[in-house]
Amino acid sequence: MTAFQNDKEAVDSLKQQNGSSWDSVNPEYVARMRAQNRFKTGLEIAQYTADIMRRDMAEYDNDSSVYTQSLGVWHGFIGQQKLISIKKHLKTTNKRYLYLSGWMVAALRSEFGPLPDQSMHEKTSVPALIEELYTFLRQADARELDLLFTQLDNARAAGDETAIEFIQSQIDNYETHVVPIIADIDAGFGNPEATYLLAKKMIEAGACAIQIENQVSDEKQCGHQDGKVTVPHEDFIAKINAVRYAFLELGIDNGVIVARTDSLGAGLTQKLAVSNTPGDLGDQYNAFLDVEEISEAELGNGDVIIKRDGKLLRPRRLASNLYQFRQGTGEDRCVLDCITSLQNGADLLWIETEKPHVEQIAGMVDRIREVIPNAKLVYNNSPSFNWTLNFRQQAYDLLAEQGQDVSAYDRAALMNVEYDNTELATKADEMIRSFQRDGSARAGIFHHLITLPTYHTAALSTDNLAKGYFGDEGMLTYVRDVQRREIREGIATVKHQNMAGSDIGDNHKEYFAGDAALKAGGKDNTMNQFG
What we know:
Residues 1-21 are annotated as: Disordered. Keywords: Lyase, Magnesium, Metal-binding. Its cofactor is Mg(2+). Mg(2+) binds at residue 184. It comes from Microbacterium mitrae. This protein has helices spanning 3-18, 27-36, 42-62, 76-90, 102-108, 125-158, 161-172, 192-205, 233-249, 281-286, 330-343, 358-369, 387-401, 423-433, 435-442, 453-469, 475-489, 496-499, 502-513; strands at residues 68-73, 96-100, 181-184, 209-213, 229-230, 256-261, 268-269, 291-294, 306-308, 311-315, 323-324, 348-351, 377-380, 445-450. By secondary structure, the protein is α/β, with parallel strands linked by helices. Among the domains are: 1-36; 38-277 and 327-396 and 438-450, Alpha-Beta Barrel (TIM Barrel), CATH 3.20.20.60. It has an 8-stranded parallel β-sheet. The protein has a 3-stranded mixed β-sheet with strand order 5-7-11, with no helix packed on it. The protein starts with a helix and ends in an 18-residue tail after the last helix. The model has no long low-confidence stretch (mean pLDDT 93).
């Protein structure tokens, strides 16, 4: 017996127990409402989605072709429409997640107005967005099920038993729009206690996976900006522990922690690591510092020194009181960061790179997997990369290595439109198309995401509409480029009243008031023009 049938029977039993005062309660309507409200709390969502992620991680370990993907979203409606689109075109949400980008929270959700990605926004806006996203995803469930219930009522009225059986099967086997969210907690917004408190709020809102980075909290920068400052491993491990304790306190024992390293592009550290014995973790961190050997006589007032192998070493300290790493140590630091994080409670890795290059990523992952064979990455397919130029240059280099004549191309100017229809451009586009598949097979990338794509799509679509509407085309721009496409491509928002919940409300009114219900969806509702 299905959950839907179980609910009908349970409510019917309650109705009988409560006698005539419950005569107006229809057990099937209650079962419908329960089906439309499957998840009662954020913690239920967190557990449900954590189970999904753990299953997906195990499947990826057995077969790297079954990687997962997400797009970053900044509003519940955008996340909802993404999942509706996935279900419409791909028929299942399997292996598709949402990403909550700290960059977009800062740029679009702060009460201060647009901010750079430097942890200056209100940290409470992060759990608020998680809650908002799941509110919209649950509403997508309610709307889609409501449409099925209406179809079921129509099939019953027509006496179409085949249709009744088919529609009931769709209801009984309904796939929810609720999927995992990987949520960005930046560098933890303060000390480990602050990280723990914020992580709890995020998990209570529904987050099953929290991504945290090894930058200094009060100097945090976007991963694609300069001036990044990392912390010693012990500091970062404390914050990983804080997130794990938050998961465990709330009963999400299989919550997922994504440990991000920005060391590839970070040349600075705020403080030296504590080292007790040669070769310990602190000593390994300090070994990457840019130092000069000095004698005791050369010690200056206020100098900080490290003693290693009987030598006195003075780290290069900047006017900002930050210490500098040696040039060329970024990859080695990334590898150490990743191994250390996985050995201390993290589940997945995130290596922030300066370009999308499979072999560069794979080179680091190969070294990590020498120590931890099932190491897996979340990778940022970032809009900060110039994908066209990067891959055309990679294609250029590949053709040159193969001995082909590349004299017709200017490697520095490959973004030029004159190259768009060339063999090189075609090869580069194919490399971009297969980047996720290749990265998952070769470089251990379990999850591919784009951090802020919907920031760009909102700007581009608005630009196209404004250009024509306020120009000579007027309403034709909207009708041709928006509404006509919505109708012909089956975009649900063409019936915007329905998307906002008007039909759900009408049906509820009928549940509550029967024939006396005043409904909005009658013959004079202009939404009927869309069939």
